[in-house]
Design a protein that fits this description.
By secondary structure, this protein is an all-alpha fold. It has 4 domains: 2-141; 162-332, no CATH class; 400-470, Orthogonal Bundle (Methyltransferase, Methionine Synthase (B12-binding Domains), Chain A, domain 1); 481-640, Lysozyme (Orthogonal Bundle). Helices cover 66% and strands 1% of the residues. A two-stranded antiparallel ribbon has the order 1-2. Helix 15 packs antiparallel against helix 16 and helix 32 (495-506) packs across helix 38. The protein is globular and about 80 Å long.
Length: 654
């Protein structure tokens, strides 16, 4: 009887599926997968394959995901071989590897692990754990302890299976007590209190009562220090007190300095310097003029990347070019080679080397190499060499034949079809997979095809990936020109700035939506859009109008004009205000006039700092393309006038 009902159910599903169009059937398959309806999905997949629908492999993939815990290894191997040219194959392999790792099926796991290309920490932890289980620490020419410690010394949330790896390392002594305390400190330093508490489970001497002291340090750090609530003599007690110093310095710097000065001699020399390093970091982020003095008190401790970066920024704000040079000099090679620090090192050498030919020669050598790179610091480097940037040449324009060749590729066809069905994540995955091995010519042909499809974000990203040949029409397209030009003119705005901001906000995709709710081409927050619409006199404005292209651009340019007026006509500050709010943008002004590049460099929020750099660099590129008078990026940035009074210390945390 049960078998008969099953057959009838399959027959019913099959007859319904046959009546659907390809699009409807594929949508039904998506819904079946979401509902974990294996029977319906199996029939959908069968019909899609019979009809030879281009996206049928996705239905097979979804079905395999639902069956993965039950199928035999041979079936998975067969599936991976069948769909080896599909972007989802490696994702499936990753899920299978997790299953194999959980089952400790190591021979099969390591047969497949060499073919796995994605970065997945859970899979990595299983691989390292498996090597330990097999007693083969040299598999894949790696050292298990070294690789595991890279994972250990992070404050990111790690998959639960990584704990079994750490358990073994701790048991064998490869994960030492010092390693445990080091990550505990990192977690507290990064504000990850819950993670810190979890780490203490590896230290037998710390009980529940001790953990409550961490909560008190979080809630009332000044009281912890002033009352000497926690012993300074134990390792845990020292860490709690250091955490209290860090917490207090984050929000009340002057109070932190006063409270810490009274108890600093209760710490040993290393911890005493460490605390000054944390105070110095928060002082620099808050633009406190004493920041460099605090860094001097931390001279005997190893500073992390962020502390060193902010030491440079504090020196820039103080116009202390020797301090800039010295702080960059102690960075690790990888950080030292970042564009920002090469540029500021060259500037420091140049500022000090007016009468020193050797320093000027070294500065110019750095700038010449940096100016070849096509990014914010590269443009600034070119400015220092007095090389006014002309409109970048279009090194290569793909022919129609090359573009159509791209359009005919199956993966590209699938990407376009997925985009049409509003499956944007899958569409981008197909596109990235299809173009992963393209040379510059094919990348530019693909970017041109994406542009013709009005897939602007993909066109930009694809064109940005070229190494030798470039096409700046594709990197910096000008869609919606009539709307943007009209609104920019109405608000008396620099059109290049509007395009630069819009490119950064949404890559010109009108359906873009951020994680915090900003929407549309110019990424407007609903409350801001409603407020601006009322001030503009847009009668009948409704929240869903934020997605209308014309309305979004009108409101966005109106708000740009509003922030520009609030910031006294300073486009750099207005850009910061658009991203982080007007009050913060004003708070970051110095009491004295400040080079805008230094103002940008010392924005406390990395998201806003990167945003302003990219928007202004975008505007710099767009200007000559839109017929605007050419100028250097440095002159476009200009100088931020001083506030004429001591700066209000910014206590906001990132």
């Amino acid at each position: 009887m049960i078998r008969l009902l099953f057959v009838l159910l399959i027959t019913l599903v099959s007859s319904q599926a046959k009546a659907l169009s390809d699009d409807a059937l594929f949508q039904h398959a998506r819904d079946s997968y979401a509902a974990k309806n294996e029977i319906a999905l199996a029939e959908d997949a069968s019909q899609l394959n019979i009809q030879q629908y281009s996206l049928a492999p996705y239905a097979d993939y979804w079905l395999m995901l639902l069956k993965l815990d039950q199928v035999e290894d041979a079936e998975v191997v067969s599936f991976l071989a069948k769909y080896e040219d599909m972007p989802f194959t490696d994702r499936l392999r990753g899920e299978w590897l997790k299953k194999l790792g959980k089952q400790q099926s190591w021979p099969t796991f390591f047969e497949q692990y060499g073919n796995f290309k994605r970065e997945d920490i859970a899979v990595q932890c299983y691989a390292l754990f498996g090597q330990l289980q097999l007693g083969n620490a040299q598999l894949f020419n790696t050292n298990v302890a070294t690789q595991a410690k890279i994972l250990w010394f992070t404050t990111a949330d790690l998959p639960s299976n990584c704990n079994q790896l750490f358990d073994v390392l701790q048991k064998t002594g490869a994960l030492t007590t010092d390693d445990i305390w080091a990550r505990f400190r990192l977690a507290l330093q990064d504000g990850k209190l819950s993670l810190a508490k979890t780490i203490t489970a590896r230290v037998p001497s710390i009980d529940a009562a001790s953990l409550k002291l961490l909560d008190r340090a979080y809630q009332t750090p000044q009281l912890i220090l002033d009352k000497k609530t926690v012993s300074f003599k134990t390792r845990f007690g020292a860490e709690v007190n250091l955490y209290a110093v860090d917490r207090l310095a984050r929000t009340k710097l002057d109070v932190a300095v006063t409270s810490y000065s009274k108890v600093q001699n209760l710490f040993d020399a290393d911890n005493r310097a460490f605390a000054w390093g944390r105070i110095a970091y928060h002082a620099a982020r808050g633009h406190d003029p004493k920041a460099l003095d605090y860094y001097a008190l931390a001279k005997d401790v190893t500073l992390d990347k962020e502390q060193l970066a902010w030491q440079v920024r504090a020196a820039l704000r103080a116009k202390d070019w020797l301090a800039v040079q010295n702080a960059i000099a102690i960075m690790q090679p990888k950080q030292h080679e970042e564009g920002a620090w090469r540029y500021w090192k060259a500037r420091a050498l140049k500022e000090q080397g007016v009468n020193d030919p050797a320093q000027m020669l070294e500065a110019n050598a750095i700038l010449i190499q940096l100016a070849k790179e096509r990014h914010y610091y590269g443009w600034l480097a070119a400015d220092e060499l007095e090389s006014l940037m002309s409109n970048p040449t279009e090194d290569y324009i793909a022919s129609d034949i090359e573009v159509m060749a791209i359009a005919s590729e199956p993966a590209i066809k699938r990407a376009v079809e997925l985009q049409r069905l509003d499956m944007r994540w899958e569409a981008k995955a197909e596109w990235v997979w299809a173009t992963r091995n393209y040379d510059d010519k094919k990348l530019l042909a693909a970017a041109e095809y994406a542009l013709r499809q009005k897939w602007y974000d993909i066109a930009i990203i694809t064109a940005d990936n070229t190494k030798q040949m470039h096409n700046f029409n594709l990197r910096y397209p000008t869609p919606y020109r009539d709307l943007i030009r009209s609104s920019a003119s109405d608000e008396h705005l620099d059109e290049a700035w509007v395009y630069g901001l819009t490119r950064q906000e949404s890559r010109f995709m009108h359906y873009a939506k951020s994680g915090v709710g900003a929407a549309g081409l110019m990424q407007l927050m609903p409350a801001t859009a409603k407020w601006a619409a009322k001030r503009m006199g847009l009668d009948g404005y409704q929240n869903d109008m934020i997605h209308d292209l014309s309305t979004n651009i009108q409101i966005g340019t109106y708000y740009m004009r509003h922030t520009l007026d609030l910031m006294g006509g300073q486009a750099v500050m207005a850009t910061a205000a658009y991203n982080a709010g007007p009050s913060r943008a004003k708070r970051w002004v110095d009491s004295e006039p400040l080079e805008a590049a230094i103002y940008i460099e010392s924005i406390p929020f990395s998201e806003t700092r990167n945003y302003v750099q990219k928007v202004m660099a975008n505007a710099h590129i767009y200007a000559p393309r839109l017929g605007t008078t050419m100028q250097t990026l440095k002159s476009r940035l200009g100088v931020i006038p001083g506030s004429g009074e001591p700066e209000v210390i910014d206590s906001d945390s990132e």
